[in-house]
From TrEMBL, chains A, B, C:
Keywords, alphabetical: Cell outer membrane, Ion transport, Membrane, Porin, Signal, Transmembrane, Transmembrane beta strand, Transport
Protein's cellular compartments: Cell outer membrane
GO terms for cellular component: cell outer membrane; pore complex
Name this polypeptide is given: Porin
Membrane-topology descriptor: Multi-pass membrane protein
Keyword Signal tagged: yes
Main location: membrane
One GO-annotated biological process of the protein: monoatomic ion transport
Gene Ontology MF terms in the entry: porin activity
Top-level division of the source organism's lineage: Bacteria
């Protein structure tokens, strides 16, 4: 998110009230060579020129209008961009499996403002924000991850619940692990003695007589995809800590996602940690608990930064599949906008887990490693 | 369409001739909480955080080049934006059912310049415009609707022919009720004593040996989706009236859409009315006539405006399904760019009709009501 | 590519190093009436209002950051736009048939940065470019085609290998004939005595245990879509010549695309020529050789230009299908940004070929003709 901004001059069409108004075109183009390797039967290697190894590639438009009296209105439209092939990124329209990307249109996936599309009213009382946005339960996972949940080093506390392929049988990817559509969010103002916080409610938008049948069981799904969460934190000097809880309703198993994270900036290094404790309802095995943690840090080195983390996630089901990941990386800043980076990660599956890095495949209970090497340019 | 514009300075790459050239980035982000309720067997309720309750959400790019001698060239690329979830809006490539959105890609629908994508040449003789644009037959329906064909209050003269779900069995949604692709349009210049007008021809682009078989009947469809229309009007002082006719060819039933609308601005209120008389060919029941009307008005109140309308539409087929709608709303302008609004509407089905508001469902011959409450921010 | 550019002022967020930085919004909107006619059994005519008859319609964002010391970073995001209907254009994510557009989503195809999406580092040593870009093997076909591979006059040396419908049975469209995704490109610096050149490597990104079965044969496809090419040229005064070779791997038949092209500017006319010799592997008929050539020219006439070409392509398989095309056109510049144009072309199929122009269809071994008449506006 370190980026310089482009501001466009505004014609004073709305008179004096728009004196402080602006519209900004912004973006990131991050390209990375990514290599992944798996082991055992079915294990494979993969080489890619892909994107977002350090920061998520995007193109966005945002602006603010000063309404006077301390009030402002603003908008934010931000699209994910797969700059290795030009495709856009899919959004999820209803916070349910049915609202996501459709298999098979990958080649033609057009741009959507999947990353954020909101309109806000703000004042001394805080900010009211409507639309598609990050969920509160996501922030601790990314803010307190030395790798910012991008690239091969992404914390396992997110990867295990938010990425396809890392779940035990019957456990689904959590649609609202990162973002939610149809949300109404509230953010505390910025000036309350180090405390910060937000709450969000989001709608699944099903009709109230909707039903879903799994096997021989039919249930009403009017609340599927509807949920909410909050996050509260405190930051002062070198210290920053935050806590988040959330719940999303699904007729065949609610999802609860909770976590706490923090960091201490020692100057010569920034130490980070996080702990997640989740519960994911399944149609076949009831509520499955999952928990994970991360410890890591950032070490400034001249114009660059060393990044380190160790993270784990375990599901409390059957053979208790667990994944442990170690990641180390280096970012070299050519300027505030342009950086070169590389990350190496190694992942250890046990309890039947079989996740692999960077698109490789690996046998259950084996290791996978991979690396990224790339360039991030923001504008 | 009340919006302030962002103008970008142009580098004089084309020399003096581009002195008056400009490119404009513009848009609207309109978010609304929408509630709808139906009645009877199969009736349901729905809650949504959706978009475009007051003005259609959009992101656009447009510009004009002064060619000298009173001539100019211009372009306009405008995309619909579902800012509640970040998705784009589908276009229709051939003015036929086959050219529209494909069921099932809603989650991933990318941005298209579905609202308008045109290039124009203009001079003292008027404007020649090529591409995707509004049809002439749409304007009276929206210009003389107090709700501007947006949100729960949208006039029934449009809703009944342009929205899926409001038609009797066998009657299709009219693909060119609002816009047409592949069009060649001509607009009268703006300075001819209060008269205004436009004509448009659009192509379905089928090969001349194309055929379609319905049941046991096979017909040549070379002209399917090809058609045209015109609109002429007169505006002077408080008075504005316009008339439009159109015809679009389909092998299994042409569509004729005709309407007249007008308004009188009394100062303390603006009175509006419109009358539509359409004919929609069907494969099974021949040409089905439809007709409707609206009466409504806008009443300025301080920084706001009260909006009122009563509209109806009836199909002359079988039990003569008819829908009557009453709508009342209020818009409060926080600035020229930002407004809060709410609308309540109640719809009365008879003759077998079963339309419902805001995504709800209702039984035949029952009522449905709903409301919007939202914010519109333009840039 | 004659276009004036819009430059946005940059806030000096990155300090002095960004002094020469800029972001540019650019595009082309080119609309054309296109008519095509075929002959014989199954022959048909087609009328369209389509796009890109002179230059490819697009919307793009690009920018450069001065990194100091002769180095710079830059990005380029450029989307194809079907401005006749507002749709975007599909990309290809993996340089294979599976990565392209999916049949049936034409109506809803969203914008993708299919034309180019790259990030670059450049210095005195040249430019390193990552992402989706033109392939080196494409440039001679377009640079030395008087019609710039746009519209009904497009050289047959590209049409035969890059457009669906022009290939003999069993021969596929070459996915990398124009662009490749996941590419790493290198460009020579601009100041080496008239010589220029580039090399590119692109990845298909299959897992190394991927397989494909055709009939009873199963092969490993780990390298499918992976390949590369280079182009070297020399330009001095009126003279310009370049040579290109490339190879892309596919388990059931590699594709080799090679060509040479040149031009001589006599002042009163620019003479152009090109020669292609390709080899396209097939699953059923082994490697099929194809070869073609073009001769043509551009003749300046006042504010306009006459364009002429004769091109051919022949596949060395079975009855040796061959296509010969003659094209003549005229472009009239209203300004540097806006032009009117028309092109007429006639195509002669033999040896069983049955290609037709502008969307028409024609019987094998018959002729097809067509024309474009349109306007190109750039910004």
């Amino acid at each position: 998110m370190k980026k310089s901004l482009i501001a466009l001059a505004v014609l004073a069409a709305a008179g004096a009230a728009s004196a402080q108004s602006s519209v900004t075109l912004f973006g990131i183009v991050d390209a990375t060579y990514a290599y992944g390797k798996g082991e055992g039967v079915g294990g494979s290697k993969k080489s890619q020129l892909t994107n977002s190894g350090y920061n998520s590639s995007r193109l966005g438009f945002r602006g603010t209008e000063d309404l006077g009296g301390g009030m402002s209105a603003s908008f934010w439209l931000e699209a994910g961009v797969n700059n290795d092939n030009g495709a856009g990124s899919a959004t999820n329209t209803n916070n349910q499996a049915t609202g996501g990307a459709v298999a098979g249109i990958g080649g033609g996936q057009g741009l959507t403002f999947n990353r954020r599309s909101t309109v806000s009213l703000a004042g001394g009382w805080g900010e009211l924000r409507l639309g598609r946005d990050y969920t509160p339960q996501f922030f601790n996972l990314t803010v307190f991850d030395p790798f910012g949940t991008n690239g091969v080093g992404t914390t396992q506390t997110l990867n295990s619940i938010g990425s396809a392929g890392a779940q035990p049988t019957g456990v689904v990817v959590v649609p609202t692990a990162v973002r939610a559509s149809n949300s109404i969010g509230y953010f505390l103002p910025g000036n309350i003695g180090g405390f910060y916080g937000q709450a969000q409610y989001y709608m699944g938008e099903n009709n109230d007589n909707s039903t879903l049948t799994v096997g021989t069981v039919t249930r009403n799904t009017k609340s599927d995809g509807t949920g909410g969460g909050f996050r509260v934190g405190y930051a002062a000097g070198p210290f920053n800590v935050a806590f988040s809880m959330s719940k999303t309703n699904y007729a065949f198993g609610d999802v609860e996602q909770n976590n706490v994270g923090g960091q201490w900036d020692f100057g010569f290094a920034k130490l980070m940690g996080q702990y997640s404790f989740d519960s994911i309802g399944t149609a076949t095995a009831g509520d499955v608990d999952g928990k994970g943690w991360l410890i890591g840090g950032l070490i400034p080195v001249g114009a660059g930064e060393i990044r380190l983390s160790y993270s784990t996630y375990e599901y409390d089901i059957g053979t208790k599949p667990e994944i442990k990941k170690f990641a180390i990386g280096y970012v070299h800043n050519l300027s505030k906008r342009t950086a070169l980076y590389t990350t190496y990660a190694r992942l250890d599956n046990s309890g039947g887990a079989s996740q692999a890095l960077n698109g490789a495949t690996t046998a259950a209970n084996t290791k996978s490693d991979g690396f990224d090497i790339g360039i991030r340019h923001s504008f």
